[in-house]
Amino acid sequence: MNEQQALERVRRELKPVRYEHTVRVTESAEKLAHRFGADVEAARMAAILHDYAKYRPAGEMKRAILGTVWLSDDWTRYGDPILHAPAGAVFVKEELGVTDRQLLDAIVYHTTGKAGMSLLEKIIYLADYIEPGRTFPGVEDVRKAAETSLDKACFMALANTVTFLVNRRQPVFPDTIHAYNDLADKIK
């Protein structure tokens, strides 16, 4: 599947506002890939596909996750907002025939992060967080950090996410805590 085909498939799955977000994430991922020496083509493709399952029903996403051997059932226990990431990887694999494990993992972890993130995983996580349409508190500081340090920017984004969830007394997915701790050690 080439990039144009992927964009067309994604356009059919998403609402216009989410498709526009996807385009901005793709542009942000390309810039980050150039800046930090990643495969630009892979970064663009992962960004295009990252929200493929965003509007699927929660039950369908949970069934997709539970039907795999390569995803933990834990994904189904931490709230519906994170389901689209792992389920999206399942649907991208099954419906679009994408088998590149690095690309699939970048989709899986684009909302939560994880300890030991690959360069591509960090880029997609961060591109989704800092794309120009995002306007929440703290995003400008993360954008500025992303100009010089991928690890520091990801760490800041994770810290903001954990704080946001804790302040709302919502559960924090364990991989997010592990990603935060991992990057805290790396940026000391």
Q: Can you give keywords for this protein?
A:
188 residues; Hypothetical protein af1432; globular; 10 helices; mainly alpha; 0% strand
Outline the fold blueprint.
Blueprint: H1 3-13, H2 16-36, H3 40-49, H4 58-66, H5 84-96, H6 101-108, H7 119-130, H8 139-145, H9 150-167, H10 174-186
Helix pairs in contact: 1-3, 2-3, 2-7, 3-6, 3-7, 4-5, 5-6, 6-7, 7-9, 8-9, 9-10
Question: Order of SSEs, N→C?
Answer: HHHHHHHHHH
Radius of gyration, Cα only, in angstroms?
Answer: 15 Å
CATH superfamily: Hypothetical protein af1432
- Which blocks of ≥5 consecutive residues have pLDDT under 50? none
Basic shape: globular
Q: Work out the count of structural domains.
A: 1
In the CATH hierarchy, what is the architecture at level 2? Orthogonal Bundle
- Binned, the helix content reads 55-70%
Which CATH class?
A: Mainly Alpha
On the 0 to 100 scale, the average pLDDT is 97
Q: In a few lines, what is going on in this structure?
A:
This protein has helices spanning 3-13, 16-36, 40-49, 58-66, 84-96, 101-108, 119-130, 139-145, 150-167, 174-186.
